[in-house]
Amino acid sequence: MSTAVEVNFDGLIGPSHNYGGMSHGNLASATNEGEVSNPREAALQGLEKMRLLMKAGLVQGILPPLPRPNFDLLVSAGFSGSDAEIIESAAKTAPGLLRAAYSASSMWAANAATVSPSADTKDGRLHLTTANLSTMLHRSIEAPDTTATLLSIFENEEAFGVHGALPAHADFSDEGAANHVRLCAEHGASGVELFVYGREAGESAVGFPARQTRMASESIARAHGLVAENAVFARQSKAAIEAGAFHNDVVCVGSLDTLFFHELAFENTDETLASLSQAADGRFEVKPVMVPQAEVPIEDAIKSYLFNSQLLHWPGEDRLVLLAPLETQETDTTRAFCERMTSGNGPIGRVQYVDVRQSMRNGGGPACLRLRVVMTPEEIAACHQGVLLTEEKIDALQDIVRRTYRDRLSPNDFGDPSFASECQLAREALLEALGLSGLV
To answer: Which CATH number goes with the domain that contains 128?
Structure first.
């Protein structure tokens, strides 16, 4: 068993952060559609969350925003001419398409990829598969740029295996680590990987879309070279999806040997827990912490994003810490449950609340903002060092954000060609600070 730690790679919120309301099934996104956003505040909030974890002694990484607007999408849709002409024409005739081209949703790095650490894979490499995000137009354009980013960070092929996205077909719908949980005794030990899917390939969608298929999850497990007995596939409950749990991480989060989930998270809870225990096979005991529907109605769980929190092994503490959004504290049922939970002797000992309101209003909490990558010291040394954060680097990034990001943005602003130039200049400055100028 190797020594390993969980590294959180947070998505840096981009300068086009907006409330476009493009995510069907995401209640917060729909509720706040068209409202004025604050990209500057959003990015600063995200960076402060990263600073909090880094100062606690955790290894913290960052993923840069993707290029916006995505001119490839607009050109593919028939627009031509100069950049300014494309934007002006799209704003007049296809404003919805222009909003999609400006989407800043790559900030939710939990959807960037699915990750299997080297302790779980047959070839002993850390594997990452870019999510195709094929269900939603504005997210389906992310995969090529996300793959390029991951290849730039995890470029050492002896240590890392970066896989491109699955085919962009409904049968292979894949939303990344938001539907994946890894359980283990220690981060460096062989673990159990839980893949949660909403539908089978070929199954017709009814109501809100189920964004993950079993075929996609099985394909990723094969590509990563997982031992079959260590991979568990469980169906997300239809009730959760219809209530607005568009990803499993809206109703479930896990870390080390602890699985924290809502009673309605899985279609068959007993079968899921039994399969996890069987896969653990004496290596560790799975500790389930189930939140009853009677104590926290699923509507409150989704409104507060209780489960879209980071469950962390906090240095110096013997029980896990739940890093939850302020909305969890402000919702009576979830606050009361957290108080009861942490007053006992269970595996979760403390809840710490953070302000990520700009992200939350678009439907993404602390867990959405990060991609968890379990890494050995050798793997940390082998990745691109520019994306590993220090106090000085966070300060530098915040200076760039304050200098280049707007503090007010509405979807109507996308028709101004000068905003595209602002986004480009901001991203170039961020990439230079991270040593990733080759991505421009």
So the answer is: 3.75.10.20
Distance CA 196, CA 90 (A): 38
Assigned domain for 80 exists: no
> Does some domain include residue 421?
yes
As a whole number of angstroms, the distance between CA 412 and CA 359 comes to 20
From the number of C-beta atoms within 10 Å of its C-beta (0-12, 13-18, 19+), residue 222 rates as: exposed
Domain count, the chain: 1
Q: What average pLDDT does this structure show over 101-109?
A: 95
Range of the domain at 242: 5-68+103-439
314 vs 277: CA distance, rounded Å: 25
State the pLDDT at residue 102.
96
Count of other CB atoms within 10 angstroms of residue 421 = 12
Q: What is the pLDDT of residues 46-60, one digit of tens each?
A: 999 999 999 999 999
- Nearest residue to 264 (alpha-carbon basis) of 302, 288, 292: 292
The pLDDT tens digits for 121-161 are 999 999 999 999 999 899 999 999 999 999 999 999 999 99
Active site residues: 175, 247, 368
Supply the pLDDT for residue 205: 67
Nearest to 213 by CA among 248, 187, 188: 248
Those residues whose C-beta lies under 8 Å from the C-beta of residue 263, and which sit 6 or more positions away, are 269, 290, 291, 292, 293
Assigned domain for 74 exists = no
- 127 domain-assigned: yes
